[in-house]
Amino acid sequence: MGTRDVTEEEVRRIMRLAAQRLMGRLPELADELTAKIRDTDEAYRRMVPTDDHWQSVYDAMHHGIGAILLPRSERRDVPQAEKTARRRAEQGLPMDSLLRSYRLSAEVMWDALIDVVTEEELENLPVLTRSATKVWHAIDRQAIAAADAYRRREAEMFGRTAERVQSLLDALLRDRADAALVRSAAAALDLPERGRYAVVVTRLPGRSDHGDEAVRPAALGAMRLLWRMRPDDEVSVVLLHDAGADDLTRELRPHVAGYAGISPVVEGLAELGRARRLAELALRTCVGEGPQIVRLEDRLPAALVVSQPELAGHLSAAVLRPILALDQADREVLLGTLEVWLRCEGSAVRAAGQLYCHRNTVFNRIRRIEQLTGRSLSRPLDIVELALALDAVRLLPAT
Question: Which H/E stretch holds residue 321?
Fold first, then answer.
């Protein structure tokens, strides 16, 4: 016994009949689908209020079933799916849960269509099966539109959130923050108003684009880091909790490809502007090849030099002019010897080891430095002048 051909007109008639009957059953269908979704998906139970969920299911089924009765140009099922998806993104519902709800919707819808046709025109049930592909395709179209709308809304929210975080960090780092800003930032960034903070400023020497070379960890042990990217450097606000500056320096070391300046510890968000300025000052004392991580407390004399460049320039000229007037090779030998001598705390033996020469050579160079500058490395005040003048030469741009 063969199967008779089914015309498109018969399919449309059966689908219209079923849609008309289902429109009268919308409340119970919405009850069924809402319960099925909530019974099997904890995310919906936790993130979407029941009334909100039921209403969105009712509206979606109303537009979805109604689409069968309307010309394609008048159908509202896809815009409704997009509206619901945006709402679910705002509520934080996972996209997997949203898409799973469409699979359950297809099951409920198809079962309801079969029930109606079985009740009304059992003999035409085979006709209904010809429309199965179209029913599932329509629901797939809604799911695809919902996924696209969800992603767009999620991207919008993430962008605004990221902009808000960056804006608040900028405000806190710009200067001493007032009480209103501190309260707002603490709430938005989930940071305590009072707490132990440090600021880190990092930079790759000779370039402003850090690319993939810089790693920006969000946490180092128990410490939390919030990063602010700027054209020439990067700034991190570090909530230390019980950690100290030594802990921060140690944990940060694997992540620094260039220079990093670390501020002293401050006691609240209102002090981050001052901490940022001090971290930048520490960063300015870095010289030579990286990576280098510098704490301000360890570079205070050099920080004084870079914070007063005009005065420091006068000092270096007054103290080191005879040496600076030498040819480049001779000048660098003497300045390098002075630098190592100071670092080795006046030990000729240690200095000779670092300079790869005999200790008598070190003594000869030191005597020449003293003769040229008129300063003695046995007098504390002269040592201070020579050390600051040397920092000025190394850290300040040549004029």
Answer: helix 309-324
Query: Six-digit token pair at 48?
Result: 């979407």
State residue 14's pLDDT score.
Answer: 76
Domain assignment present for residue 339? The answer is: yes
Which candidate, 136, 102, 142, 128, places its Cα nearest to that of 16?
128
Same domain flag for 39 and 93: yes
Distance CA 364, CA 220 (A): 48
Mean pLDDT of 248-253: 92
**Separation between Cα atoms, residue 147 and residue 91, nearest integer Å:** 15
Q: What pLDDT, on a 0 to 100 scale, did the predictor assign at position 118?
A: 82
Do both 38 and 72 map to the same domain? yes
pLDDT at 22 over 80: yes
- Tell me the C-alpha to C-alpha distance, in Å, between residue 2 and each of 5, 117, 126, 127, 270: 9, 22, 13, 15, 85
Amino acid at 355: L
Q: What's residue 267's pLDDT? A: 94
In the predicted structure, residue 392 carries a pLDDT above the cut 60: yes
What pairs with residue 220 in β-bridges? 223
Are the beta carbons of 285 and 298 closer than 8 angstroms? Answer: no
CB count within 10 Å of CB 190 equals 10
Q: What would the two tokens of residue 232 be?
A: 């020439």
pLDDT at 158: 63
Report whether 283 contacts 203 (CB < 8 A): yes
Count CA within 13 A, CB hemisphere, residue 74: 7
pTM: 0.56
Which residues make beta-bridge pairs with 262? 200, 295
Residues 227 and 143 in one domain: no
